[in-house]
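Sample entry (203 residues):
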Amino acid sequence: TANVAALSTSQVNHMTTDQVASMSAVQVKALSKAQVTALNSDQVSNLTTTQVASMLGVQVSAIETDDLQHMTASQVAAFTTEQMKALTTAQMVALQSDQVRNLGTAQIAALSATQVAAIETADLVLLTNSQIESISTAGIAALSTDQVKVITTSQIKALTAAQITALTTDVSVVATDQLRQLNDEQVAAITTAGIAALTTAQV
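Predicted structure, serialized as tokens:
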């Protein structure tokens, strides 16, 4: 590990993909933030899932957005919940649709409100019902009106009562036909502020 830590960023950047893929989990964990940033897209996309899962949160946050986009869905799915929490806003925006679609429910549940708010609408609409249901209430509350507008009918129906409550006045941007799909428990969970924000057509 001392040898790995002694490598310059230029040396790290010029390692072959085979050399990078052959590093042990301990060696990967020994990389500095600067060394991780120096890795190029080919190197990052050739990391094994074991190597990816061994990285520290500070290392994951050091992965350049372009390199992150070149990671496979399986690699991103290998991120631990602690690693997910370390992703920056820019990294959340950079995630590709197939990467987001393959995230586990525990990974999504670990996201902060700021991270959830950074999910692009094109990615949000692709989430499964289980994934939507796993978003924290703080995350739901942080959704922008544009994000709420793209949530599908299936996703709306999957929201828990607590998540419906967290929408507060944003419930008013949900399509009328989708509101009609809510069950009794979900309707009862709409806040008074949310009800006041509904149009006569929605009511």
